[in-house]
Amino acid sequence: MSEWVLEANNLTRDYSVAKGFFGQRETVRALKGVSFKLAQGKTLAIVGESGCGKSTLARILTLIDPATSGELLIDGEAVAIARQKLTPALRRKVQIVFQNPYGSLNPRQKIGKVLEEPLLLNTNKTKAERKGLAMAMLEKVGLGAEHYHRYPHMFSGGQRQRIAIARALMLTPRLLVLDEPVSALDLSVQAQILNLLADLQEELDLTYVFISHDLSVVKYIADEVLVMYFGEVVEYGSRDAVFANPQHAYTQTLFAATPRADIDSIRARVTGTQPTV
After folding, report:
1. Quick one: which of 1, 2, 156, 182 has the most CB atoms within 10 Å?
2. Domains of the chain, with CATH numbers?
3. pTM for the full model?
4. Is 224 helix (H, G, I), strand (E, B) or coil?
5. Separation of alpha carbons 211 and 104, rounded Å
6. Dist CA 251 CA 247 (whole Å)
């Protein structure tokens, strides 16, 4: 097995868009040669303003959209969904958690069925086995067996995000892509979900790609940081190095425009106290 769970080598993504009144089309390059490597058990945070290409990259990493060019490797295996059929084993390796937990859950489906569905579609497990695994996963994310028969609208935003995380983990993925997973939550609930993600990562040896615009959250959870600007990587390095001494002018501007981004400040946001200096 490869040393790297995830490798991106010069990934690009082009879109054809309409221009003008006569239906002429032009090609827009949304990703411009993105490269990085991510080791098992680590968290890579992808940072940038809206429109910088973060979500486009997430869709490529989660095998939803193909890259136009470049190479994507998962566990050392090259993946090109435009040219090859994905195997169930490969699909199980990568899962995604979206920003809006309610929008990603079927409102007509009870939570037990939400959790069992990935197993039904991708494994040969029996009905009893699927239910047992769903019950166990509810406990693992801080919910209980009593939630199995409830519908999504019966939960708070934080509970729904716990359910979304549980569903993503049902297939025991190697890589979890988290696309702004706490930005829609209250501050106190953000801290709870971040702590849950940290605990799950340690327990299950998970690898995370964490997409966010909130630098305080990034500094709390990331091992490495990749800063994007108009589809390009302008800064990439360890969390401590990037936060201590950002090299690119855009990164410096981004940090200067952001409220204090350190762990004490996150705690202060949650407790309402002043951060220590």
Report:
1. 182
2. 4-271 (3.40.50.300)
3. 0.88
4. strand
5. 17
6. 7
